[in-house]
Design brief:
Structural class: mainly alpha
Strand content: under 5%
Largest sheet: none
Number of domains: 2
Distance between the termini: 20 Å
CATH superfamily of the largest domain: RNA polymerase sigma factor, region 2, helix turn helix motif
Shape: elongated
Helix content: over 70%
CATH architecture of the largest domain: Orthogonal Bundle
Radius of gyration: 20 Å
CATH topology of the largest domain: Rna Polymerase Sigma Factor, Chain: A
CATH class of the largest domain: Mainly Alpha
Number of strands: 0
């Protein structure tokens, strides 16, 4: 699947493109799961959270126009996840307490954690894009050496290449990865 920019992905969704919906789901589902865990939701509630967020976005997608001057997409998505999680917690509390008696407190929103999760999300997307842009052996050398921390000599033996090639692969892939990450961050 070719990489699609956020703006063009959102425009394709607005136009009802099913492939873009699938890409959106596959891209943001893991992030929603992580936030659901942050809010101490159980696995059934996390599934409900995913459905709620996707349904809410789907219902708004026909009229949604991404305008960077109005804020970042990650903030928009974060608020949407927060409100859907809040509804799930309210529903749980209502069932536990009775008729909704008592005060409801949503787990504290931790902006630094959300920021770290978003950065990890960007890195994951960048690595997927990098893998599509470079030769398989180069990506394997980079992944084994730079990402997984294997010794360069071990990587070279495994890939049947020279240690120097492992160093070169890491250097080239890292340079390309930085550009991809910057592009993704700029688009957000």
């Amino acid at each position: 699947m070719a990489y699609t920019t956020k703006k063009s992905l959102l425009e394709a969704i607005r136009n009802g493109d099913e492939v873009s919906w699938y890409e959106f789901y596959e891209t943001y589902r893991p992030l929603i799961v992580v936030r659901g865990r942050d809010y101490k939701l159980n696995s059934a509630e996390i599934d409900e959270l995913i459905q709620s967020v996707m349904l809410r976005f789907f219902n708004r997608s026909r009229s949604f126009v991404y305008d960077r001057s109005q804020g970042r997409f990650r903030d928009y998505l974060g608020v949407m996840i927060y409100h859907c999680a809040l509804n799930i917690i309210r529903s749980r509390r209502k069932n536990e307490i009775g008729c909704g008696d008592g005060e409801l407190e949503m787990p504290a929103e931790d902006d630094s954690r959300w920021h770290r999760e978003w950065e990890q999300h960007i890195l994951t997307q960048a690595l997927k894009q990098l893998q599509l842009q470079i030769e398989e052996t180069t990506f394997q050398a980079f992944e084994l050496y730079a990402v997984k921390g294997e010794a360069p000599e071990k990587v070279a033996r495994f890939l049947k290449t020279s240690v120097n090639m492992v160093y070169v692969a890491k250097s080239r892939a890292t340079s390309r990865l930085r550009k991809i990450v910057k592009q993704l961050q700029d688009e957000e």
